[in-house]
Amino acid sequence: MNNPFDLDSTGLFEARYVAFLETIVHLRPRLHRYCARMTGSALDGEDVMQEALFEAYRKLDTFDDSRPLSPWLFRIVHNRCIDFLRRREVRQEAEAAAAAPDSVMPVDLPGREVDRAVERLVVNLPPKERACVLLKDVFDYSLDEIADLVDSTVGGVKAALSRGRAKLATLTDAPRAEPAANAELVELLRLYVERFNRRDWDGVRELASADARLRVADCFAGRLADSPYFVEYERPIIPWRMALGEVDGETAVIIMRDDADGLTPFSVIRLGVAGDRVVRIVDYIKCPWLLEAAASVAVA
To answer: How far apart are CA 35 and CA 161, in angstroms?
Structure first.
């Protein structure tokens, strides 16, 4: 990277950053699961986690290596999630909708851990309650550890857990209503998929703006025009095909692996569109945990 302090700098990631990512690869599915549940989207969760890990990399010299690495990383990703929710103004909407007396009696969920359905329901909670329920009932942190992670007190964590669990007990795992995809967007993505499957790289480039940005997790961030992106897909690493689909209700390009069991979803590409051009491509092919954490994956 030309500028080691900017995740979207032009070029391949510097070797030291890639090495750092490799040392924590065992933690990333867990960190992503938390981010996905906090943001309500597996794709948003991965973007937030990548930003958080880059921030952690920049702060490595401040880390006390006599302490466990995981809680330190969780605190950074938690703060990034809160920043994300503030930007989306979800915090204000959730707090207004959930205004309720603090004296709600606690309701214990069955079993020590919530199941995946309830885990997805936490998106209906205000951010602090959401974080406390996830950290305690899904990730099994102690009250003291949670208080440190969310910058609260043990009493504050207990109260948030009580309110959050009580609200979850009244909810059902009904699918959330998602906005219908724009017809022009779907047509542009259809053309992208069609040309990608033909390996018509010039045709794909025609769909992108001149200054379109590309990010490939763990690898590259910068201008699409400066990348070896299409060359990588020419290499026969795995038999693949692109398909139009949805991940957590968002229209996306699904990378399908073509193996003995037929075509199966393998990874995701997220496209940002402005007008009739692709302006941003985020390829998650190096993030195998993403689809596993998604609440829903559909292929057209």
So the answer is: 18
Give the C-alpha separation, 223 to 185, whole Å: 22
| Type of residue numbered 84 | F
pTM of the predicted structure, to 2 decimals: 0.83
Q: Are 194 and 207 in contact (CB under 8 A)?
A: no
SS3 248: coil
Provide the pLDDT for residue 236: 65
Other beta carbons within 10 angstroms of residue 91's beta carbon come to: 16
Give pLDDT tens digits for 156-175: 999 999 999 999 888 765 55
* pLDDT reported for residue 113: 42
Nearest residue to 214 via CA among 64, 1, 10, 6: 10
DSSP 147-159: HHHTT--HHHHHH
Cα 284 to Cα 287: distance, rounded to the nearest angstrom: 5
Euclidean distance between CA atoms 218 and 232, whole angstroms: 14
pLDDT at residue 259, rounded to an integer: 80
- The CA distance from 70 to 93, in Å, is 31
CB 221 within 8 A of CB 7: yes
C-alpha to C-alpha distance for 162 and 103, rounded to whole angstroms:
9
For tokens 């936490």, the residue is: 122
pLDDT beyond 70 at 111: no
How confident is the model at residue 65, as a pLDDT? 86
Helices (H), the chain: 15-23, 28-39, 42-58, 69-88, 90-97, 116-121, 127-133, 143-149, 154-168, 183-197, 201-207, 229-234, 289-293
